[in-house]
């Protein structure tokens, strides 16, 4: 069983949208249906990959194909893999970025083995974090966002990137997905709660300046922290998530942050 997060961590997070929402469980608690550990998706190594991850990619492939009225084999496997990866990293990054920006949490590094998920398609799946890591310490101490970014990007996020090696998706695309997820999380917080734009954008900039993400995007040097977009410019990733290729004849709309935008119709990132 999972429990609601403490009031201290939900004061601002509750209204920030489904990707920031999470439940909590005690460290060492036993799993129960429908919960699974996210470490399942990284098992199997870089050659064969995880059976759980292959099931996830296959389900995403079927869903993408159905949206275009086509059979699953009409969608390239690497397209489905990239979209599946983006969904996973966005779900992990969003609540952590929110916690980091607003509460200086998690109080310690997280591992995929202690992140629980209830697999589902079509939006933000349920996610549960270890209660001890997201509860403020007795002395009220907080951690710098830079340390939280280091822990998350070098730990769970890197593991999720490595897990997609068997699907022939370029690491450049996968790390671009991570950068897009960071920007999307901050944009979502800003849209849901404009007064929180400054801490959300500041946290996002810290993540985006990490060595693993520094070369994945372009961003105007001076950002207006009170608006969803940088002043006099915008966030643009230096790769494409490949989602447009899921449409018939690879003629889908491009995401708003896509490097390929050249007068094409766009969808929100």
Task: Characterise the protein shown here.
This protein is α/β, with parallel strands linked by helices. It has one domain. It contains 8 helices and 8 strands; from the N terminus they run H-E-E-H-H-H-E-E-H-H-H-H-E-E-E-E. The strands form 3 sheets. A 4-stranded mixed β-sheet has the order 1-4-3-2. The chain has a two-stranded antiparallel sheet with strand order 5-6. Helix 4 packs antiparallel against helix 6, helix 4 crosses helix 7 and helix 4 packs across helix 8. The chain is globular, with a radius of gyration of 18 Å. The two termini are 34 Å apart. The N terminus and C terminus are likely disordered.
Summing up helix and strand content along with how strands pair, one would put the structural category as alpha/beta
| Topology pattern, helix = H, strand = E | HEEHHHEEHHHHEEEE
Radius of gyration: 18 Å
Within the largest sheet, what's the order of strands?
A: 1-4-3-2
Uncertain segments: 1-5, 228-233, 265-269
Shape: globular
Strand content: 5-15%
Count the E strands: 8
Distance between the termini: 34 Å
Helix content: 40-55%
Largest sheet: 4 strands, mixed
Number of domains: 1
């Amino acid at each position: 069983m999972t429990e609601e997060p403490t009031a201290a961590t939900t004061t601002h997070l509750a209204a920030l949208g489904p990707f920031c929402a999470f439940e909590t469980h005690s460290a060492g608690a036993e799993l129960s249906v429908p919960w699974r550990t996210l470490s399942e998706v990284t098992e199997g190594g870089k050659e064969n990959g995880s059976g759980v991850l292959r099931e996830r990619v296959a389900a995403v492939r079927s869903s993408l194909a159905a949206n275009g009225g086509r059979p699953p084999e009409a969608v390239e496997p690497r397209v489905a893999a990239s979209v599946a990866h983006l969904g996973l990293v966005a779900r992990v990054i969003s609540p952590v970025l929110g916690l980091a920006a607003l509460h200086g949490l998690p109080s310690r590094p997280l591992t995929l083995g202690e992140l629980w998920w209830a697999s589902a398609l079509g939006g933000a799946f349920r996610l549960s974090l270890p209660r001890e890591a997201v509860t403020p310490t007795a002395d009220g101490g907080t951690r710098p966002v830079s340390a939280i970014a280091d822990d998350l990007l070098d730990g769970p996020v890197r593991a999720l990137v490595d897990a997609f090696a068997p699907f022939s998706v370029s690491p450049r695309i996968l790390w671009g997905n991570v950068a897009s997820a960071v920007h999307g999380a901050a944009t979502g917080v800003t849209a849901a709660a404009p007064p929180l734009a400054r801490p959300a954008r500041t946290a996002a900039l810290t993540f985006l300046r990490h060595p693993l993400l520094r070369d994945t995007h372009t961003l105007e040097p001076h950002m207006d922290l009170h608006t969803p977009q940088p002043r006099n410019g915008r966030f643009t990733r230096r790769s494409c998530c490949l989602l447009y290729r899921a449409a018939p004849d690879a003629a889908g709309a491009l995401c708003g942050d896509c490097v390929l935008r050249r007068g094409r119709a766009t969808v929100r990132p």
